[in-house]
Amino acid sequence: MPRRIESHWIAGPAGRLEALLEEPEGAPPRLAALVCHPHPLFGGSMHNKVVHRLARGLRRAGAVALRFNFRGVSRSEGRYGDLAGETEDARAALGWLRGRYPDLPFALAGFSFGARVVTRLGCGMEGARFLLAAGFPTSMGGAEYLELCPSPKIFVSSVHDEFAPRNELEALFARLAEPKRLVWVGAADHFFTGALDVFEETVWREAREYAML
């Protein structure tokens, strides 16, 4: 069974959102995963190399992956929404994805700014199989909402992440409710430079356990 790739428009709260849906190869999907990209004001888009690897790792774990551009990015309509607006974009995209695959469990994954979006969204609802936060930027401010979040949380971070120093992320992680996991990747920077293959393998390994439940 070849991998199916589809382009879509999703109705968002600030206008249409440009999206890309990809199913895994070789077998029907076992999980539906929403994937969110880095900061819209600093070149982030669904085609970011880390987002691409994140989606591919999830597909290899058996997930159908939906990437999309936040409002104001590329062909998505609207203007930057200061995180709150992008969280509502993600809510709309997740609603579309769950409507497309109503019988599958769902998960949320994001890189950098996108990690903030998916954890804010996922901690405010029930039912996510897991939240995968890659390069969660502690430098963006507080994250008290995570401390009592009951959803399974997977953090994947570079040991040299300039936006999430190791001591800051470890201190945050220590305050979080279980279940939780923190995996360090020996990369050169926030963008997992020099270790994208290891990053993808980590995503695949961590997600596979939950996808097979």
List keywords for this structure.
213 residues; alpha/beta; Rossmann fold; 5 helices; 23% strand
**Broad shape:** globular
User: What order do the helices and strands follow?
Assistant: EEEHEHEHEEHEH
Question: What strand line-up does the widest sheet have?
Answer: 1-2-4-3-5-6-7-8
Overall structural class, as computed from helix and strand content, comes to: alpha/beta
The CATH superfamily turns out to be Alpha/Beta hydrolase fold, catalytic domain
Structure, explained:
By secondary structure, the chain is α/β, with parallel strands linked by helices. The chain has five helices and eight strands. The protein has an eight-stranded mixed sheet, sandwiched between helices. The model has no long low-confidence stretch (mean pLDDT about 95).
Lay out the secondary structure.
Elements: E1 5-12, E2 15-22, E3 31-36, H1 49-60, E4 63-68, H2 84-100, E5 106-111, H3 113-123, E6 131-134, E7 153-158, H4 166-175, E8 180-185, H5 196-211
Parallel strand pairs: 3-4, 3-5, 5-6, 6-7, 7-8
Antiparallel strand pairs: 1-2, 2-4
